[in-house]
Amino acid sequence: MANKAFILQRICIYAGTTIDPDADAEVRQILLDKFNLPLPQRRSLEESLMAVATPRPEIIDLIIEYRALTASKNKANLINAQRRT
User: Fold this and answer.
1) Residue 53 and residue 38 in contact, taking contact as beta carbons nearer than 8 Å
2) What pTM was computed for the model?
3) 4: closest CA among 18, 16, 21?
4) Cα–Cα distance, 24 to 20 (Å, whole number)
5) In this structure, are residues 63 and 21 in contact, taking their beta carbons and an 8 Å threshold?
6) Residue 66, class by beta-carbon neighbours within 10 Å (0-12 exposed, 13-18 middle, 19+ buried)?
7) pLDDT, one tens digit for every residue, the chain (85 residues)
8) Of 62, 41, 59, nearest to 51 (Cα)?
């Protein structure tokens, strides 16, 4: 598994600009503007990204992987904070 900084760098290269993959609005806008890829409406952006038909552009898989790393880090931080209290 690649590290988060490397994945972010690849996402920004594909997007052609700096982007925060954790910002739903930015992700939706980049995918629509740069890739002409409207996402299907789902309850969350993760569900929308997963619902894109395969083969899907690599940027989508990179965003999914980046967001998964962020979620696992946030979960680990929460568990550690609970242990300290």
Assistant:
1) no
2) 0.78
3) 21
4) 9
5) yes
6) buried
7) 569 999 999 999 999 999 999 999 999 999 999 999 888 888 888 888 888 887 888 999 999 999 999 876 655 555 555 566 5
8) 41
